[in-house]
């Protein structure tokens, strides 16, 4: 599938999206496309967001990666079993046993199946294994274990890779620009596949803002799709075991977790690029350690993303199941030039580290309505993907909103809704970036959506009724040099659309929410592609 020439950004043969285009962008004041312009804008004092308490891990005590202190652990209560009649699990009706088995993890289900013949029969049934597969493939309703003969076999064929489809959103440390991929399960082929999420926009239209005719509004109507021409991940159920076996040179029991899994991604003489999938293990962060995801993004696990030995050392690889991270993985990629029947030579080998996001970070709530995955307009750099992060705040106290003497009950109720909605911080963090402000960095920060940050409510036609709050825009020269925060304003149009007024640049650009779940079903690909062609 080739990119339409009507769109500004282009996709190269290797799947990379051009970060520059030849379109002309109008700005009411300073041109952000010129590095010399940065010195003309006033810097706003800021605190490093990495040091803010709200940036800590979203995990709670008891989750993976968090160890409760001894003082917080209560001793278990002793149950008095005197006089109780002992019963075996196998004495229960099979329906009850099935219900109990449904509460077990896949690993525990395997252990139970080795205890006796009755439990083996129940623990290996499709009823017991169906939900273990279904729970890991959001967006797809399974009706058959094909191409396998049972759901237990299907689960086994893709173990331990089900976390890829379970968490679905993955972003990588590709230099400066990064990549955002969506991993899903295709029941038609029984494979786990991951594709880049890309967005293209039409040539922009410009119009003045009636509130200030020196400010230019840039139109933004992007089209989002998966780059289906070139998968980033493809793990086939029927060939997974044989592919793994072909790379195994050791018979150690833990080797399946440390071995690299070759992926069939359409390598040919015309495109001799090869890829291996690598599991990874979490690390305990230390000062000056290069980590992924970056500290700007809350995470319960982080892994290293720098290695002088290209991550071939044992210390980077899990040796058993308990060491496998379900929050990160790596892909080793290289070109191979062959001469006749001789082995190919690896050229340009690179290793990219991918991490996922805690679903709580991008799932909007009544109190945090702007959480989510968004895309933003970055003029000549094209469209970039962002995490709109609203850190947790104290629970809202309705009693803090006191009814005013001249206020009706309806007005009071509306003000309480607004007080709940407009409070706390909003941080826009780049999942993909550009040569100026790269992936993993903030693009803007709103310190307070509430009264302390309030500027005005729009009364003019454009953005009518929207709330405008103070924000700090993040800019830098190329290669992220001389970065600083400048004055800007965020226009809260709706829960699915925002606009950023870059005061010094004299222009307004838009941000739209991305519906990630609309790309999870392979059956929707044809419809989305037809929409793109229109």
What does it look like?
- Residues 49-78 are annotated as: Disordered.
- This is F-box domain-containing protein.
- It holds the Pfam family Cyclin_D1_bind.
- One of its GO terms (biological process) is protein ubiquitination.
- This protein folds into three domains: 35-58 and 359-533, no CATH class; 90-159, Monooxygenase (Up-down Bundle); 167-200 and 227-356, no CATH class.
- 16% of the residues lie in helices and 26% in strands.
- The protein has helices spanning 94-101, 106-113, 117-123, 126-134, 151-158, 162-167, 237-247, 255-258, 359-362, 409-421, 525-533, and strands at 169-172, 179-186, 191-200, 206-209, 212-218, 223-226, 233-236, 261-263, 273-279, 291-292, 303-304, 328-337, 345-356, 372-377, 383-389, 426-430, 442-446, 454-457, 467-477, 481-492, 497-502, 507-513.
- The strands form three sheets. Strands 1, 2, 3, 6, 7, 8, 9, 12 and 13 form a nine-stranded antiparallel beta sheet that branches. Strands 14-15-16-17-19-20-21-22 form an eight-stranded antiparallel beta barrel.
- The model is unreliable at 1-11, 13-19 and 52-73 (pLDDT under 50).
Total strands: the figure is 22
Strand content: 25-35%
Poorly predicted spans: 1-11, 13-19, 52-73
The number of helical runs is 11
Helical content class: 10-25%
Radius of gyration: 26 Å
Instruction: Indicate how many domains the architecture comprises.
Output: 3
What's the end-to-end separation, in Å?
Answer: 14 Å
Major sheet summary line: 9 strands, antiparallel
Secondary-structure-derived class: alpha+beta
Overall shape: globular
As an assembly, this protein is single chain
Q: Could you tell me the mean pLDDT?
A: 85
Keywords: Ubl conjugation pathway
Pathway: Protein modification; protein ubiquitination
Organism: Coleophoma crateriformis
Protein name: F-box domain-containing protein
